[in-house]
């Protein structure tokens, strides 16, 4: 459920939600903590999907912004990156550090709001900035985010981003008649979408008490333009008709890569996108 309530401190509201969900996410089979422990070569579904696009990460100094409970971060470590994970949820980072200890991963985790990252990390110190699925929608200002990315990258350093497609973010809940209906903003708006939902996107039996979140959509052109204006050059942009989570329950099926696609005519909808950009010298 979404409504138009005004927001005074979106970070406090959203942090309470992520803090509460972190233990449930870590315990859920969807995040596969046990598989990370049992198999030293195991990678998260998100990182495995984009591994061919990521290329050789051996020795690269990297930072994963909005890393949540660290499964993608540890996957990047397993691909050879010297990785730091950053997130504003202390409870999420507690789960990430616990997993890193269990799998002997040398990953640093830093607690900070993403907009404050240049103040707690080394500006210009990173070869790679990585942002994964489900991150940008929690940020009200995409231009400010792009400036953070630029501040962290060394000249010639690379941004790697995969996230939900802004078109997916506009859609109403699945309908009985099979139509895809645009209900929510495509472009970034000053006011957030305020949601009140008692569940989460992974398998769990936990009942949550913090149910309100605030989010924003950002158009694909807005994201690209923000990066260009922040001193980056676009090197790749791919749109995908699949997502690593079931974004439209009842309408989707899992494909051979473990991704979810529309059962009927999946070419109607871009669900995610992958973008790469380099910081100009």
UniProtKB/TrEMBL annotation:
SUPFAM superfamilies xref list: S-adenosyl-L-methionine-dependent methyltransferases
Record's protein name: Methyltransferase
Gene3D superfamilies noted in UniProt: Vaccinia Virus protein VP39 (3.40.50.150)
Lineage: Bacteria, Bacillati, Actinomycetota, Actinomycetes, Micromonosporales
Residue span, Methyltransferase type domain: 64-159
Source taxon at top rank: Bacteria
Xref: Pfam families: Methyltransf_12
Single annotated GO MF: methyltransferase activity
CDD domains from the UniProt entry: AdoMet_MTases (cd02440)
Keywords: Methyltransferase, Transferase
GO biological process per UniProt: methylation
Organism: Planosporangium mesophilum
């Amino acid at each position: 459920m979404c409504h138009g309530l005004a927001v005074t401190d979106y970070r406090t509201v959203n942090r309470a939600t992520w803090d509460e969900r972190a233990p449930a996410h870590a315990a859920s089979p969807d995040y596969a903590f046990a598989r990370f422990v049992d198999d030293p070569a195991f990678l998260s579904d998100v990182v495995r999907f984009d591994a061919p696009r990521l290329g050789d990460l051996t020795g690269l100094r990297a930072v994963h912004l909005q890393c949540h409970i660290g499964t993608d971060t540890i996957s990047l470590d397993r691909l050879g990156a010297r990785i730091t994970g950053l997130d504003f949820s202390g409870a999420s980072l507690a789960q990430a550090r616990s997993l890193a200890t269990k799998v002997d991963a040398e990953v640093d985790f830093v607690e900070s709001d993403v907009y404050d990252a240049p103040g707690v990390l080394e500006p210009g110190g990173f070869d790679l900035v990585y942002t994964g699925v489900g991150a940008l929608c929690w940020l009200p200002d995409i231009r400010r985010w792009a400036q953070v990315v630029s501040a962290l990258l060394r000249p010639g350093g690379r941004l790697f981003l995969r996230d939900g497609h802004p078109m997916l973010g506009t859609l109403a809940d699945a309908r009985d008649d099979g139509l895809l209906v645009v209900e929510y903003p495509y472009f970034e708006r000053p006011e957030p979408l305020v949601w009140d939902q008692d569940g989460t996107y992974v398998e769990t039996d936990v009942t949550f008490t913090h149910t309100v979140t605030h989010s924003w959509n950002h158009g694909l052109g807005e994201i690209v333009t923000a990066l260009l204006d922040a001193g980056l050059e676009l090197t790749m942009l791919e749109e995908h008709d699949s997502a690593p989570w079931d974004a439209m329950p009842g309408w989707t099926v899992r494909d051979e890569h473990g991704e979810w696609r529309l059962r009927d005519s999946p070419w109607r909808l871009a669900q995610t996108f992958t973008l790469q950009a380099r910081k100009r010298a």
